[in-house]
Amino acid sequence: MQGRKTCRTGQLTLALLALAALAAPIAAAADRPAAMEAPDLQDIQRRIDENGWSFEVTDRFSSTITPEQRANLRGYNPPPGYEDELRRHLKIYPVDKALPSSLDWRDLDGVTSVKNQGDCGSCWAFAATAEMESFVKIYYGQELDLSEQQVVSCNPYGAGCGGGWASAAYYVFRNEGAVMENCAPYVGMDPPTAPCTQDDFLKYATITGWNYIANDVAQIKAALQTGPVCTAIDAGPEFEAYGGGCYDVPGGMTNHLVLIVGYDDRACNGNGAWIIKNSWGADFGQAGYIEVQYGAGSTGTSCTQLVYSPPPTTITLDPFLGQEPLYGDQELELTWTTSGDPAATVDIWVGLAGDCHDVPVATGVPNTGSYLWTVPNHGTSYASLVVFPGGNSLQGFDLPDRNLEIIGHKVRYVSPSGSNTAPYETPQTAAHTIGAAVTACTGTDTVLVVGGDFSGSVTVASTVRLLGSWDPTFTVQDPEVHPTRLQGGGSALKFFAASGDYGLVEKFVFHDCVGGNYSQPMPGVHGGAIYSINASPTIRDCVFQANRAALGSGFGVGGALCLVGGAPVIENCTFTGNIATRGGAAGVFSGASASFVDCDLTANSCSDSLPDYFGAGLFVKDATAVLQGSTLVSNGGSYQGGGIYLDGGQVELIDAVLRNNRANQSGGGVQAAGGSLVMTRATVEGNSAGASFGGGVMAEGTDLVLRNVRFTGNASASLGGALYTSAVTGLVENCLVDGNTGALVGGLVILSDAGFALRNTVIYGNTGGGLLGGGAAFSADYNNLWNNSGGDYISTEPGPNDLGCEPLFVDLGGGDPGLGVHSPLIDAGQPGCLDPDGSPSDVGLCGGPEADFPAPARVGGLALAALEGGSYRLDWVPNVEPDVDHYVVYRDSAEVFVPAAGKALGQVTHPTATFTDTPPFAEGYYLVVAVDSQGHAGGYSEAIPFSSSGLSAAGDPVVPTVLGIRGIYPNPFNPTTTIMFEVPRDGRVRLEVFDVRGRKVCGLVDEVLPAGAHRVTWRGQDERGSAAASGIYFARLDDGQRRVTTKMVLAR
């Protein structure tokens, strides 16, 4: 009790002292002179010496201001009765705990930059606004530049350039909220010259109140533990002349408001000092700060501190936003996270001239954490963005960590009917040459080129897009009716690094072009139509005809395209009759990562078929090329690599076709020397190696991965009609090798000492032998070799689980390699490898996780009920695919059995999904398989047991044993489809939709589900509810332990 009484007595004493101290400084303020002379440095230095003061003087600041500015530097001018207002807000801090001997909020990242109030007496607004900025930075982690002009123009008391006080600013913060400096820029004037505009802008900071702090060192230090405090000070000539050290001039009247941001008890020779932030710019004192001894300069007078509560919701934008320039009309996915109080929706605003966010991008956006933003076509280096809970920026917000640079664009025109008047911004003033229009481009410009014939060489060294095949009025772009044809020497079109990834050329015909002299990728004449170095252009819907890298016997690479570095994208282009020493159609070099999507490379060639002439279609050296949905047909005239030659780097083929390509020596379809070759769902057909190995593919020293590749009709003069490898690592999985010819082994030759597996593959009907495999690290199992003339295995032992049986294809001769009913290859693949529907992998082309699965999904939801007389009724969930024709029911006494024709009990016509049977034995198992109208048999259902001693779970469905997508119906669809899937155990499951580039389109399921069968509907929309474009999509099911994917087609 005694201790508590003492504490109260101490607090009362402080309160009395604080109240007694109010009157004198404020009364003195009314007597301050209207103006102040410039500091007399010699006189001040004399008084420093006489009084033993400790600071240094300088004219660094005072010499930069005019008398008029000096007259308004000091603007602390509280109103009559202010002491009563302070008294009402007095807060006494407990001081029974030891405080740290020093504190500096600058070191704790709690202070914003020093500002300059200019020739307006608004020090009070600057001190209070700096305090507000500090509290937001300390407690919400955002560094804001708030508007002092708002405080000057919008406070209701008339405080302004003639003077003011802290609580006038606090009123604005509490009742209105603080706006950004860029919204209400500081002009140092009062209304009406500088009107109040705060209602037009978003608010970012508010307070719940403020406190008056007693003029006591311990009390002020206690308050500083929370954040900076405002104080009045006597800012006489000595203050203005301060250049460093300890400012220890005794105080008199107070005339200036500043911000205390810290203290140090050891400063000023142990007397202690406040660290004060001033508002006279960085030329004042020590970079805008002054160190004032405790009690000097009347510091601690009218000391106040705001009360701040940070927003309850925290929004966090992608920290990398703004690291790269943005482009006008670019679609950018904004992403963010939300913590704290939830926000059902968010608003997104942008400011194009800084962080005054005055343009709404979207309001009421569902808070999914992402939004696809179309960047405005407005060139600026100072754009800013904000995301906040719907309708209220004071609830929380986030800004990018940096300004956003937006590169805007204009349109230029090219037409022989134009006036050829720069800058060519209308069809009437169109340029006569493409080069002239490109030269005129600034920013991210687009050049529209009318249909017709053009010649010359065009250099793109900036962010420019070229769109060809326009009609004379530039209203219709149609390459069939208005083709833009370009012929040029020295490479018709050149892209350099400055064009970045913005460059585009679309709907041009490049014909009879010849390359230019370049030192990269090696000295020679390269890139007949296009040469790109360290750039990433998109080349779309173009035709390349009869272009050459070099004339005659000259050395050159890339008959049509030479791509050196960068990440070019080539979409829906046709290459015909192009010629080069290497890479008749295209060459990719020096770390480039090129994508060829839906392209056709036909009848291209090397300029000779002698040694050193490689890759009639495509040549890749120390780079990456991905070919998706593309075809290479009838390319030839090369020594090696009729379709593709890989020399280091990586080539990946997805859903690609290599047909009838020819090499004089080896690698009719593809030749790989080192590097990595990955092929998925590809067709290698009718290719030939004239004198050596690998009619389809030859790979030496390569990391080779082949999944779901069909080799058919390929031929070699020696080993490996389909495939020849040596010193390789990797995998051949779920492939079909049929009808290939080789003088020695028409099928596969795989020689590996470093780790290579062959599995789930069918080798069928090849001439010269099926498989020659060898090497210490070669393994083969779960394959099916059948009917290969010359022998199935050549100097090779069968795998322990190889099948050796008739595959029972649906119609291989007619082009359908799917498995028919009773095929022994169904579900017969390596354990752990699954088909897309979650059933065990089939052996052959249509099995495995990457398969283009033609068969119905496995039957699910089996349930068995015992009937009288030893009979059973078997029920299942009908499949939803539109072409399911019937089901086949199998029975056997063994739990694991091959569902051959002799085990089949009968057929059940779809959509009936029930079958009654009286088995001849007491115990056994049933299986069901779905068969479509073309004869494709799907994966087998889970086996369901029966027993005359009773069913352990009569009528209960069988719980799936693996995660799987059972089916998608309809597929293709427009725009709605149903996805059926099975979950083997209770737990969290995600089902998401992705596009062909791996970008997430939407999420359909993300929740805890019970084990069993489920279904969900996708309506062909993305996360924002916008219609998804027509095309191929993938449904991906993930339970945290396994992931399965199935293709679907949206056909609008």
How is this structure best described in words?
- By secondary structure, the protein is mainly β.
- Among the domains are: 11-29 and 43-307, Alpha-Beta Complex (Cathepsin B, Chain A), CATH 3.90.70.10; 324-407, Immunoglobulin-like; 700-706 and 717-848, no CATH class; 860-947, Immunoglobulins (Immunoglobulin-like, Sandwich); 964-1050, Immunoglobulin-like (Sandwich), CATH 2.60.40.
- Helix content is 10%, strand content 38%.
- It contains eleven helices and 80 strands.
- It has a 24-stranded parallel β-sheet that branches.
- α6 (123-140) packs across α8.
- The protein is globular and about 115 Å long.
- Residues 1-13, 15-20, 23-34 and 951-955 have low confidence and may be disordered.
Question: What are its keywords?
Answer:
Cathepsin B, Chain A; 1052 residues; globular; 80 strands; 10% helix; 38% strand; mainly beta; Immunoglobulin-like; 24-stranded parallel sheet
CATH homologous superfamily label of the domain at 11-29 and 43-307? Cysteine proteinases
Main beta-sheet annotation: 24 strands, parallel
CATH architecture of the domain at 11-29 and 43-307: Alpha-Beta Complex
Describe the global form. Answer: globular
- Roughly how many Å is the radius of gyration? 40 Å
Summed over residues and divided by their number, the pLDDT gives a mean of: 92
Q: Looking at the chains present, what oligomeric state does this protein adopt?
A: single chain
CATH topology of the domain at 11-29 and 43-307: Cathepsin B, Chain A
> Under the CATH scheme, which class of the domain at 11-29 and 43-307?
Alpha Beta
Q: What is the distance, rounded to the nearest whole angstrom, between the alpha carbons of the first and last residues?
A: 83 Å
Beta-strand percent range: 35-45%
Number of strand segments: 80
Instruction: State the helicity in percent bands.
Output: under 10%
Count helical runs.
Answer: 11
Low-confidence stretches: 1-13, 15-20, 23-34, 951-955
Q: Which structural category do the helix and sheet elements fall into?
A: mainly beta
